[in-house]
Predict the structure of signal-recognition-particle GTPase.
Amino acid sequence: LNQSLEKAWQKLKGESAINKENVKEPLRDIRRALLEADVSLPVVRRFVKRVEEKAIGTDVTVGLKPDQQLVKVVSDELIGLMGTEASPLAERGFGTTVVLMAGLQGVGKTTMCGKLASYLQSQGKSVTMVACDVYRPAAVDQLQTLGERVGCPVFSLPDSKDPSDIAKQGVKAARDAKADYVIVDTAGRLAIDEDMMQELRDVRKAVKPDETLLVVDAMTGQEAARVVQSFDESVELTGAILTKLDGDSRGGAALSVYEVSGKPIKFVGVGEKLTDLEQFYPDRMAGRILGMGDVLTLVERTEAAVEEKDAERLMKRMMSNEFDFNDFLEQSKMMAGLGSMSSVMKMLPGMSGITNDQMRETEKNLKRFEAMIASMTEAERTSPDVLVRSPSRRARIARGSGHTENEVSAMVATFGGMRKRMRSLVNMMGGNASAGMTP
Ligand code: GDP
Ligand code: MG
């Protein structure tokens, strides 16, 4: 997944903005990458369409280049696709919270009951489990063994063949025992099956669960979307749990769940041990799917490129009339780090009306300024006024930087005017202005 996405970003490197044309190929790569990750086709289609709309119409985040911008859009969309926020397990303020587990056979329901019980107990909650898999005697034993290991009671009725009756009595027993949680394990089938759905509806009616969680095997891939959809339609789900994420799974199932059902994934299973349970965090999952933690960190860092500390220090110097050529250099480097000058300029207060011609002129001026500053001595940089008084210094700088003496004089004058304007701007804004400049 990783590699095809890497290609997608690469294709935007060096472009100055995202447009309908240059985003086409990266979008194709993203589409392919998601399909390879086993995301179902309709989900991929909708996803790519949304990414396209956002990437083209987007307000450029300060400092992001087009490729980083696309990474950000894809990452944000991925996170949104999985529900954005972590979704904790329901908890009744008063009485016993009922959690019903549903899902196909072999996906890890019974194992997950044990993991959840263990997790809840580690949070100081008391738990009872109820064994409603009446088809396989071994399933009841399995839950009982887990109960012993976790140290929580397991309710079962060996002679009953009625899951809803067992569930009802089990939940009552948990309430009598004043358990904080009761977890009801049910029988799965190999495939979607009306009997199973009816059974689940009956159990739901009998115990009115606070949570009905669909356990989905992450290895299910494309099929996951259909499974989630039919369970959600037949028995109203409140959420899902994704198991076997430790395997070869490419994570695509995670993308389908919320998109198809609007129900959040609450936990993930990452192994066969009781402790192999994690809360589900959409942003972490997105990072894992994108396989590009580094790029995301880079994006975050760029977003914070004008570090507050630096900006603040520069601000102070502007206000104190100490702003010199070194500060000027630092400031223009900062702004260069934020991407193309023009996109940054447009975001500065009072600059949105600036024309493209003026902007190009400003950019050219900045480059000239930088070259001239490079030819200054340290004393000249820190005391700009000496240049006002010394034609010979200006002549030396002109020679050194490949400019005329007039150009250097104009620069010195512009810089002086800029300092003045800065100070008055700062005073006008009560010292709260953000770092900006009008050379
Ligand atoms: P059920 O039929 O849905 O109750 O599934 P089980 O809980 O009996 O689990 C079926 C198999 O999957 C067992 O061998 C489990 O050990 C295994 N299993 C369950 N969860 C995970 C997981 O997160 N990772 C891995 N690798 N195996 C798991
Ligand atoms: Mg089971």
Residues 103, 105-111, 188, 243-244, 246-247, 269-272, 276 surround guanosine-5'-diphosphate (ligand 1) (CB under 6 Å).
